Amino acid sequence: VQLQAFGGGLVQAGGSLKLSCATSGSIFSIVAMGWYRQAPGKQRELVAIITSGGSTNYVDSVKGRFTISRDNAKNTVYLQMNSLKPEDTAVYYCYKDVGGIGRYWGQGTLVTVSS
């Protein structure tokens, strides 16, 4: 298994969750890692990305609330989600882009935010 995501759950609006995505294999070939999410009846959208150089980017709806980070020693990428809103409810998927190979996906982890 290349990627394993953890940390989803049920939280009240205004609360926080931290998702983790552990990857196997060499980290040196990874170009970028990130998180997508897919809400019921909606298309999958890119939430956050972190490049091998450490640059980050976020979808506008989560800017200022979510933070993507990585721990190279643990081969893990995190998504800290604060001030959660009901519209953040979705299945969250992590991915990694490996140079010369392509994209790997982790299994989804469900985040449910109650109002």
How would you summarize this macromolecular structure in one to three sentences?
The chain has strands at 3-6, 9-12, 17-23, 30-38, 45-51, 56-58, 66-71, 76-81, 90-98, 102-105, 109-114. It has no helices and eleven strands.
What can you see in these coordinates?
- The chain has 115 residues and is mostly beta strands.
- 0% of the residues lie in helices and 57% in strands.
- A hairpin with a 6-residue loop joins β4 and β5 (45-51).
- 30% of the residues are buried.
How are the secondary structure elements laid out?
Layout: E1 3-6, E2 9-12, E3 17-23, E4 30-38, E5 45-51, E6 56-58, E7 66-71, E8 76-81, E9 90-98, E10 102-105, E11 109-114
Could you say which overall geometry the principal axes of the C-alpha atoms support? globular
What is the share of helical residues? Answer: under 10%
Q: Quote the distance from N terminus to C terminus.
A: 35 Å
Class by helix and strand content? mainly beta
| Mean pLDDT over the full residue set | 94
**Residue share in β-strands:** over 45%
What Rg do the Cα atoms give? 13 Å
Number of helices: 0
- Number of DSSP strands? 11
Low-confidence stretches: none
| Sheet with the most strands, sense and barrel status | 7 strands, mixed
- The run of helices and strands is EEEEEEEEEEE
Which keywords apply here?
about 120 residues; mainly beta; 7-stranded mixed beta sheet; 4-stranded antiparallel beta sheet; 11 strands; globular
